[in-house]
Design a protein that fits this description.
Layout (H helix, E strand, L loop, with lengths): L5 H7 L1 E6 L2 H10 L5 E3 L2 E3 L3 E5 L6 E2 L26 E2 L3 H14 L4 E7 L4 H13 L6 E3 L7 H9 L2 E2 L4 H10 L8
Parallel strand pairs: 1-4, 1-7, 7-8
Antiparallel strand pairs: 2-3, 3-4, 5-6, 8-9
């Protein structure tokens, strides 16, 4: 079959899995088809690429990053609600891992992304900020883990859910900040 044949391209497509921390990424690699080769900040197997957030890689900018006058704000300055919220990566170690994650999201051979951050609002927020900062546009599925046993992880991969099912948590995130381009 020639390399440009559609079936060949389908076989070459990988799924990117983004975990909240490296140890979870390594645990997930144990239950997915391997072998996995280790990169700096990611693991790569025949069907999956796994990377991780290292906790809160991305966060909201501080008030003075919008206006230097807000370095020392007063109660009279509240509420501080910028027109568009900025997402920032704080330190060099996080910038390095964010670069890795952004590169993996942008790969041509990655068809979709799995949010494998911790189950719950904080995991959703960590992924949402990271994916927005990386300017991710690929379809997202959610891996919902209630247990880190091999059996539970394998089962969860057979039951990936569309990210839209978790939109209510994104709406709650919107109460904290409006997403860029929102008119609400």
């Amino acid at each position: 079959m020639p390399p440009h044949h559609p079936l060949t391209l389908t076989r070459c497509r990988r799924r990117l899995v983004i975990a909240e921390k490296p140890s979870v990424g390594q645990d997930l690699a144990r239950v997915l088809k391997g072998p996995f080769q280790k990169g700096e900040g990611w693991l790569e197997g025949p069907e999956h690429v796994i990377t991780w957030a290292v906790g809160h890689l991305v966060q909201l900018a501080e008030p003075d990053e919008y206006d230097p006058k807000l370095k020392r704000w007063r109660m009279d300055d509240l509420p501080i609600v910028p027109e568009h919220f900025k997402l920032v990566v704080r330190d060099e170690a996080r910038r390095k891992q964010m670069s890795v994650v952004t590169k993996q999201i942008g790969r041509d051979d990655v068809a979709d992304v799995v949010n494998a951050c911790d189950a719950g609002r904080e995991g959703e927020l960590i992924f949402a900020y990271l994916y927005e900062k990386a300017k991710g546009k690929k379809p997202v599925r959610r891996l919902w883990l209630n247990s880190m046993t091999s059996a539970a992880m394998k089962e969860a991969f057979t039951a990936l859910r569309p990210a839209e099912e978790f939109a209510r948590w994104s709406r709650r995130r919107g109460r904290v900040r409006r997403p860029t381009g929102s008119s609400a």
